[in-house]
Design brief:
Order of helices and strands: HHHHEEHHHHHHHHHHH
Helix content: 55-70%
Largest sheet: 2 strands, antiparallel
Strand order of the largest sheet: 1-2
Radius of gyration: 18 Å
Length: 240
Amino acid sequence: MLLQLADPAVAAGVAAHSGFRLDPTRRLAGTLEYLYVLAFGTEEEIRRVARSVGVAHRGVQGDEPVRYDARDPELQLWVAATLYDTTVQVWEAVHGPLPEATADAVYRESARIGTALGMPLASWPTDRAAFREYWEQRVARLEVTPPARAVAVSLLRPRTGPMWLRGLMPLARVVTAGLLPEAVRRGYGVRWDDRLGRQFARRFGLLLAVYRILPRTIRRAPSRLLLARFRGAAPASTPS
């Protein structure tokens, strides 16, 4: 999420039109639900979530402090790219590198993360090499603005939500910062040093170790619960 917000237009749209700052937990659940529907839903469910996203993004546009429009294909591509890259990064940290053929298949399937947002399929880079080139150029152009920093504070230092979730925030802050590109970390005001680097390595390693020993039923509980919520809702809850 912090990577998405490092695009000034995304940050402006979220700050002005989303209830995320008041209820970041709901936004997180909505994003995860969206991804689980794309990964495990039927074709009709994928069309349904795409329609819901389209409705939610109507009117998400403005000119202050920068011009933004949620229907802009470039912004849709950026959001999809961050979701794809983060998902693969975390998956490979847990399970190891994907075989080349599998990685290519996953990449091709991940285009629907963007097309469900409204992005034209042609906007998705043609292959993983093209994606990496796009990613490096895009990250180099990021700029963390005051609206992005304000939303980041709401996300990582929430004043609402379950106590157990707020209790996890010190861990989440270190892990989140450790996964960001260095320039983006600096933009958010993180003073990264060797001490924080060691802290990140320990905490992230502990999270991975715990996750690996969890029973499969517990690992899959979030996807089952959020898919059930989506299937029982009319209309679906989606990120906005």
